[in-house]
Amino acid sequence: MTRFQKYIRNTSIFLLLLFILFLAAFQLHLIPKTLFIVIILAKLLATLQFVGGMFLNEKGLKKGQAGFMVFVFGGMGARIFINLVVILFLSQILKVNFNSFILAFFIFYVIFLIIEMIYLAKYEDRLKLKK
Amino acid sequence: MSNPLPKKDKEQKSAYSEIGPFLGLGVQLAVTVVIMVLAGNWLDEKYHKAPMFLIIGACVGTFAGLYNLIKTALEIEKKSKK
Predict the structure, then answer these.
(1) Domain locations in chain A?
(2) How many whole angstroms separate alpha carbon B2 and alpha carbon A129?
(3) Of chain B residues 33-72, which have a CB less than 8 A from chain A?
(4) What value of ipTM does the predicted structure carry?
(5) This prediction's pTM
(6) CA dist B39 to A79, A131, B45, B57, Å?
């Protein structure tokens, strides 16, 4: 198992635990159904953008410093724009609360960004090797 | 009296300090977009012009965020070349 695969496995475990936590909160009537749906949708969307970002980072790491910059920053901008369009689209179709949706997504986005950056920091030596 | 950090800790600290600006950039981009979109949505509700302000807010937020992202990324690249 490569380091990348291990990282994806650990993140998946974290995501599963997070899902169980929210499901438990919903079952215990701590959060209403509408909020639960919004949280799950936001988490799903943030997960998809995170996986996309990780693959872009991996590609960028193989392309050296300049390629890394293009893939990471270009990907970051493209991902946030695509996510925004999807959020607008989903909130219109599913009639979910737009403000809750965007705030829930923002929280997950930051969590995933931290995970992504820890991954890059851990393997920062790979960046220097490709300079 | 301060004990010098072990080599591994020093390397890890330097790695995190190098990645710090990247994390800041991502958060900055998201904050800009989210604030502009929420402001757009609030204006839409106030003036009943949905979704005009929302779209304007989303576009302004995305472009401002991207401009800042590209500008800072170029600065980071310049610094790393030195």
Answers:
(1) 3-129
(2) 32
(3) 33-34, 37-38, 41, 51, 54, 58, 62, 65-66, 69-70
(4) 0.74
(5) 0.81
(6) 21, 42, 10, 7
Residue spans per domain, chain B: 36-82
* A45-54, A119-128, B15-24 — most confident range: A45-54
What does the pLDDT average to over A54-64? 81
- pLDDT score at A76: 81
Residues in B closer than 8 angstroms to A61, CB to CB, are none
Instruction: Provide the residue type at A19 as one letter.
Output: F
The pLDDT of residue A18 is above 60: yes
Residues in chain A with CB shorter than 8 Å from the CB of B53 are: none
Given this model, what pLDDT does residue B23 score?
Answer: 77
> What is the pLDDT, as a whole number, of residue A123?
67
Other CB atoms within 10 Å distance of the CB of residue B16:
16
Q: Can you tell me which residue has the tokens 């990471």?
A: A72
What is the signed CA dihedral for A118, A122, A124, A130, rounded to 10 degrees?
-120
Interface touch A76/B80, C-beta < 8 Å: no
Mutate to test the interface with A, among B33, B35, B70 (most CBs of A within 10 A): B33
Find chain A residues with C-beta within 8 A of B40's C-beta.
none
